[in-house]
Design brief:
Number of strands: 5
Distance between the termini: 12 Å
Oligomer: single chain
Strand order of the largest sheet: 2-3-1-4-5
CATH topology: Rossmann fold
Shape: globular
Helix content: 40-55%
CATH class: Alpha Beta
Order of helices and strands: EHEHEHEHHEH
Largest sheet: 5 strands, parallel
CATH architecture: 3-Layer(aba) Sandwich
Strand content: 15-25%
Number of helices: 6
Number of domains: 1
Structural class: alpha/beta
Length: 159
């Protein structure tokens, strides 16, 4: 199985994916943020599609080498982006997509207390709302949940 943890910058998708991976035997974790290191980085569609292809290729290679569960964390803002990623992944295994969203106060708090360099809060708030309305994903509002609770919710939904 392939599990995508989707969400705006700052919602906790990487930490969630990491903990889920740590608690899942025979798993691998792919963090999409770390896959594209090119110079210059332009934010073009070409780069975005390359990242989707790289994520798909890594998932395929992990599966080929016997890892049963692949956990992916990345930002998929709209249905086209998610559909493009699924084109690569559904050839490899069954895919379940969870979108983590939070309320404005929680996202503001998480941005304020995080040292990871990321987009501005206003951008993350806009992306968070787009993802909240993204169809074809399991939306989980984590505003009042701890990291461990979020992972438990995901694990229960996978049963």
């Amino acid at each position: 199985m392939i599990i995508i943890i989707n969400g705006a910058p700052g919602v906790g998708k990487s930490k969630t994916a990491e903990l889920l991976h740590e608690q899942t035997q025979n798993s691998a974790w792919v963090d999409g943020d770390w896959l594209l290191r090119v110079n210059p980085l332009t934010g073009s569609d070409k780069e975005r599609f390359l990242r989707y292809e790289l994520i798909g290729t890594l998932a395929e290679r992990y599966k080929k080498h016997g890892y049963e569960t692949i956990v992916i964390s990345f930002v998929y803002m709209g249905p086209n982006a998610l559909a493009k990623q699924l084109e690569y992944l559904e050839k490899v295994d069954t895919v379940k997509v969870f979108s983590i969203v939070v309320n404005k106060e929680a996202l503001t708090h998480r941005h304020t207390n995080d040292t990871y360099p990321r987009e501005k809060l206003e951008s993350s708030l806009e992306i968070n709302e787009k993802i909240r309305n993204l169809e074809g994903t399991e939306i989980i509002d984590t505003s009042d949940l701890s990291l461990k609770e979020v992972v438990e919710v995901i694990k229960k939904k996978l049963e």
